[in-house]
């Protein structure tokens, strides 16, 4: 049987993370669909996951701690995508995260007017769908599945390590 099931699971999660990031960049830069601020934030957990798993592969230590960090990462990812999905569906109101890009840098009313001229994608507007579902819907499902998988790995760590 397989020697290290945990590493196989981590490799699958690493692959899913790479595919997610590459797909997001492809949709943005090749297909030309501008992401909203929450869409951009939803990429962070995948980049962090890639970093954590590669770090674990290079140093081969603290595997259980890395799995715990991944659980926290995908908990954040699920909550963020659930919130974004709620905005898309009209369950939640858009927050300031969805608004102007650099609110702290705006000093004058002319700067505010200049930023309003730039096309800012609203978090409630879905610009790209696959089979009728927004990318946020897919992200919510992927995050939940990976969260459940990582939790099972963490709980059954000793059994899977054998």
Model description:
With 162 residues, the chain is an all-alpha fold. It has one domain: Bromodomain-like, CATH 1.20.1550. Helix content is 67%, strand content 2%. It has 7 helices and 2 strands, in the order αααααββαα. Strands 1-2 form a two-stranded antiparallel ribbon. A hairpin with a 2-residue loop joins strand 1 and strand 2. Helix 1 packs antiparallel against helix 3 and helix 4 runs antiparallel to helix 6. The longest helix is centred in the middle third of the chain and has 27 residues. The chain is elongated and about 60 Å long.
Quick take:
This protein has a single domain, classed as Bromodomain-like (Up-down Bundle), CATH 1.20.1550. It has 162 residues and is mainly alpha-helical. The protein has helices at residues 5-30, 37-41, 44-59, 63-89, 109-117, 135-155, 157-161, and strands at 129-130, 133-134.
Strand order of the largest sheet: 1-2
Q: Strand tally, please?
A: 2
Order of helices and strands: HHHHHEEHH
Largest β-sheet summary = 2 strands, antiparallel
Name the shape in a single word.
elongated
Fraction of helical residues: 55-70%
Structural class: mainly alpha
**What integer is the average pLDDT?**
81
| Gap between N and C termini | 10 Å
The domain count comes to 1
